[in-house]
Amino acid sequence: MATPPPGQPPPWSELFDPFVAAAELLKAEGNALVKQRQYAEASACYERSLQLLARKRTAAPQTTGELACHLNRAHCALQTSSLGAAVAACDAAVTLAPRSAKALFRRAKARQLLGSAEDLALARADCAAALAAKPADKLIAALLAELGGAPLGLAQLAEGVVGGLYDGSADGADTHLLLLLHGLGDGAAPFRKLAAKMALPATATLALQAPFALPLGLPGHAWVQGSAMALAGEGAGAELAAGLAAAAEQVLALVLRLEPAVPRERIFLLGYDEGAAVAIAVAERCSGGGILGGVIAVSPSLLRADDGVSGRDRAPPFTEVLLTHGHADAQVPAAAAERLRDSLGECTLSQFDKGHEMISGEGEMRAIMGFIAERQSHAAEAAAACPGAGQLYEVTSQSGDELIVKEVSS
Asked: pLDDT tens, 1-34?
């Protein structure tokens, strides 16, 4: 079909999607069945609606319709005491909308009814996150009080992060949080050691473990399933980009979970290689009224999230990104790093004498420490974190899961 002239809308046949139309009819049928308290039949309608939406022809995502179906399935599952199904439906809803108070609240209700100690802890975390998203909601506040009163502290919220390694700040203040995302083939333990050496004041740290073990018995983990094989030339770019988008949404959901204890604007991300690509994708999603404290991307891979929107296409203000790159990086040429910088809403590119590797010198560490210090909320904390106020460290090599770190002069 010919492209319409500029300024004219596309033909009606391009705007009409029979799958979306049929999905809307099924959703309406499900809503009518809910009013009649026929919850099993209604849930089946929502499931069929989701199947049709997955086959849609239109390029625009039907996030609203999909979200409504998942939320309604959760409601039906709660009404029939199908608690596992309710949690699963809410999981799908939170993936689409991490700040959905309704999804978080319904998942909290399901977990409360499941009743195990782990489920109750997760229910409190969900309820606290829902209240942060919708502070005036009396039902959410009442459920939170019923589950244990006050919102959980940062250490308690971080305890439930699978594979995560949490440490409070040495001074015990914990008013800021640094999330660390390792590179492809690595793990959380070396980055926990790096965070300890950085010793940022009033800053708790949480080193995250990527979810996917590498194939063929290789050591380490990946944030995107199949990314290790892609390095060997065996992978679909679109699938990897979609996997990166999913990883970013999971990290963003974690930020939402921790936000009741630490405001989002005091949360920083530091990632390397594939972890840096995930951190950048999170930064692109945190614009407008929900920016992070900042994102440090060390030698990021060029993998980009497949959501069709770059950082500059989103609404300001933007989460600020510090991109550190090596002159001798064989994986990411300088021109590619510059294009990455230009695609982001607010990004500083700093070049250093290194290849595609982790923090490798005093200058790079100073840049990272200064970036965090300038953006911390309190002037005293910023002064304490500034280069020269404490010791700086250089990552000289890596042995197994351990970063070899040495102290350098300030």
From this structure: 455 555 555 444 445 678 888 888 999 999 999 9
Measure the CA–CA gap between 1 and 11, rounded to whole angstroms.
9
Query: What is the gyration radius of the CA atoms in the chain, in angstroms?
Result: 23
Residue 179: C-alpha distances to residues 74, 166, 254, 270, 274 (Å):
31, 9, 10, 6, 14
Global confidence as pTM: 0.64
CA distance 91 to 403: 35
* Residue 135 CA: distances (Å) to CA of 71, 129, 138: 20, 10, 8
CA 264 to chain centre: 12
Q: Give the H or E element holding residue 331.
A: none
Domain boundaries, the chain: 17-152, 156-408
Q: pLDDT by residue (tens digit) across 147-192?
A: 875 656 788 778 778 789 999 998 888 999 999 999 999 999 999 9
Instruction: Provide the 8-state DSSP code for 202.
Output: T
Q: Which CATH architecture has domain 156-408?
A: 3-Layer(aba) Sandwich (3.40)
